[in-house]
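Appendix B, Record 12. Input sequence as logged:
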Amino acid sequence: MSGSLVVNEIYLSLQGESTYAGLPCVFVRLTACNLRCSYCDTAYAFTEGRRRPSDEVREEVLRLAATFASEALPVVPIAGGGRHRLPLVEFTGGEPLLQPEAAAVMRRLCDDGFTVLVETSGAHDISVLDPRVRRIMD
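Logged structural output:
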């Protein structure tokens, strides 16, 4: 990957929403959103962030996921029949689909064996996403 993303933050936490609630998840919060929803809890992601090479973003996700790669943790089945100790990566924002390179990074993480989620408003074309990416429309 040779592109870049404007990233607000990347962190490890527990998934708090969807059918994946309670599972460990690496969150990639991207900068920028074209909407101003009154209920938004991450307005700081509208403008705060820094441009990072796509490979660097992927490496940070892998590094954070490795902290959970312990024999003491259960192995969880993931998309495509694979198994991973930390299966989830969620792209959120802001609006992830405002950054065209996001789709390529998501595809690469799917190739790496992660279950990738994207939280989107649905205001942008989701057909650019790899079919393995799970869409959360909010």
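The chain has one domain: 4-137.
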